[in-house]
């Protein structure tokens, strides 16, 4: 019961902002993500559940939010940075 109520509440707002890519997306594009990753709980302690888009969650894998942000930044530079943004 509790779970259903919680979901309804979020459905009303229609869109979510992914904390990693800052894109606004509908709930259908979001997934529950564990930060730090569940697989690293022994090392990093208990995780918190947050909403993230499917793409980021998939890309992030077993990285922490910080490691993933760093990876994203390097990826951006590797891909040519701003000069490659608009073609
Ligand atoms: Zn995202």
Helices, by number, come to 4
Number of domains: 1
Q: Round the mean pLDDT to the nearest integer and report it.
A: 86
Please identify, by name, the CATH architecture.
Orthogonal Bundle
Work out the helicity level: 40-55%
* Number of extended strands: 4
Return the CATH topology.
DNA Binding (I), subunit A
Short description:
The chain has 87 residues and is of the alpha+beta class.
Quickly list its features:
binds zinc ion, 4 helices, two-stranded antiparallel ribbon, DNA Binding (I), subunit A, single chain, 87 residues
Notes on the structure:
There is one protein chain. This protein has helices at 2-12, 41-44, 54-60, 65-78; strands at 15-17, 24-26, 30-35, 48-53. By secondary structure, the chain is of the alpha+beta class. It has one domain (2-84): DNA Binding (I), subunit A (Orthogonal Bundle), CATH 1.10.30. The protein has a two-stranded antiparallel sheet. A hairpin with a 6-residue loop joins strand 1 (15-17) and strand 2. The longest helix is centred in the C-terminal third of the chain and has 14 residues, at 65-78. The relative contact order is 0.15. The structure holds zinc ion (ZN). The site of zinc ion has 8 residues, from strand 4 and helix 3.
């Amino acid at each position: 019961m509790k779970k259903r109520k919680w979901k309804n509440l979020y459905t009303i707002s229609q869109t979510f902002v992914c904390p990693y890519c800052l894109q606004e997306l509908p709930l259908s594009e979001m997934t529950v993500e564990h930060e730090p990753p569940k697989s690293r709980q022994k090392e990093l302690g208990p995780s918190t559940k947050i909403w993230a888009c499917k793409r980021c969650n998939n890309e992030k894998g077993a990285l922490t939010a910080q490691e993933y942000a760093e990876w994203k930044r390097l990826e951006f530079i590797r891909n040519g940075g701003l000069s490659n943004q608009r073609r």
